[in-house]
Structure to design on (419 residues):
């Protein structure tokens, strides 16, 4: 049976949730360390070319494009916690082969690429199972608080992980730094293993049909007006955010003329905004309504990204810091609210397919946005590209404003599905 919580705001006393939170926080921190150590290893040790670094980056998301949709159907067929433990152990084992190969002088770019690809595939299954497991662990009435706490841990990792990755790479080498990422996944597996609450076995179809189950997930997301609006809004926001991310470092280095250390500090303000957003998400939901936060958060905060291209040498960099911090705050408020809403609306048996389909749709725009950002920087200039990306990011909320969400404050008691 699931360990229940009877009073709102008491998830800190929910031992199983605390184990999930600790595991997730350590895992996220290790993953952020790896995001810095992996390209550093490729460039400084393995002498990778820009094209090879780009292919290495693409390998991280290739698993999502290939397995993103069927992963949801597979996750819905099995218990989620054992699957999460298995994928954590697989990721830890894969990453630990990197420093071992380095110790014996056997490390190659091919091995690094294969490890990154397989870790990405395992991460697809872990992420889908993770989002689908939370409702059964803490109950749907505590989803907002649970997602807020998990997002707070992730936001801290966004701030601290890259800095720690760079520091460790300088002290012990990039290959050895990947041990931290592997150990983070191992710690996550141990924390999940220590969860005592049981998980009901999913219903199994007499003759499972993968194609039909994937199609059911697609109909679920695109057939329901609220889930469809959230998916299209997030996909659009990710498209333009990827454009911003592709131009930010170039803008700060070449246009504003900042050194690398100052650029790192400025970019970290996005994570600081995320921490603030996670901390105030419960209060915002109580003040204006749990559902209303989904679109109000983006409407009020994302236009602040238009401060980014206004940054200039000297005190003008404050404009970038303020804009980036507010964007991080609003993005986190939105993510906590929309994930909670999707989990609350979706039946348990379809959570895996819903999360997998949504993730496939919203993440597939990231590589496209990165390429478009680079092209815009060439055609319009770096500052001009930031202006266009900022305008697009500000307008992504229109998918939500022109949807049933705009007239809602709290979750409806009954949900009609078109599946």
């Amino acid at each position: 049976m699931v360990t229940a919580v009877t009073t709102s705001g008491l998830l800190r006393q929910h031992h199983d949730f605390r184990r999930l939170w600790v595991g997730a926080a350590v895992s996220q921190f290790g993953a952020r360390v790896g995001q810095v150590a992996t390209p550093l290893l490729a460039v400084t040790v393995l002498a990778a070319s820009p094209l090879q670094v780009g292919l290495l980056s693409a390998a991280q998301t290739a698993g999502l494009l290939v397995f993103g949709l069927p992963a949801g159907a597979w996750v819905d067929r099995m218990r989620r916690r054992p699957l999460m433990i298995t994928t954590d152990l697989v990721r830890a084992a894969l990453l630990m082969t990197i420093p071992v190969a380095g110790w014996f002088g056997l490390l190659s770019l091919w091995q690094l690429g294969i490890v990154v690809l397989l870790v990405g595939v395992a991460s697809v299954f872990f992420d889908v199972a993770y989002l689908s497991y939370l409702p059964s662990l803490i109950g749907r009435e505590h989803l907002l608080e649970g997602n807020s706490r998990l997002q707070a841990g992730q936001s801290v990792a966004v701030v601290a992980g890259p800095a720690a990755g760079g520091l460790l790479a300088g002290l012990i080498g990039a290959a050895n730094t990947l041990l931290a990422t592997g150990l983070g996944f191992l710690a996550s597996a141990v924390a999940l293993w220590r969860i005592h609450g049981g998980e009901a076995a999913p219903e199994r179809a007499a003759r499972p049909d993968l194609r039909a189950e994937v199609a059911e997930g697609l109909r679920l997301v695109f057939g329901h007006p609220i889930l469809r609006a959230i998916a299209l809004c997030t996909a659009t926001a990710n498209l333009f955010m990827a454009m911003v991310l592709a131009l930010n470092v170039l803008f700060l280095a070449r246009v504003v003329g900042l050194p690398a250390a100052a650029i790192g500090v400025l970019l970290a303000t996005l994570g600081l905004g995320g921490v603030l957003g996670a901390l105030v998400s419960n209060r915002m939901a109580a003040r204006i309504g749990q559902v209303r936060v989904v679109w109000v958060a983006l409407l009020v905060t994302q236009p602040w990204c238009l401060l980014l291209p206004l940054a200039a040498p000297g005190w003008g960099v404050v404009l970038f810091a303020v804009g980036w911090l507010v964007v991080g705050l609003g993005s986190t408020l939105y993510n906590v609210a929309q994930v909670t809403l999707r989990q609350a609306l979706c039946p348990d048996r379809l959570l895996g397919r819903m999360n997998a389909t949504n993730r496939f749709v919203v993440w597939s725009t990231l590589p496209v946005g990165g390429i478009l950002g680079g092209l815009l920087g060439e055609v319009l200039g770096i500052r001009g590209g930031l202006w266009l990306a900022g305008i697009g990011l500000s307008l992504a909320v229109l998918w939500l404003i022109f949807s049933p969400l705009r007239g809602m404050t709290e979750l409806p008691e009954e949900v009609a599905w078109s599946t």
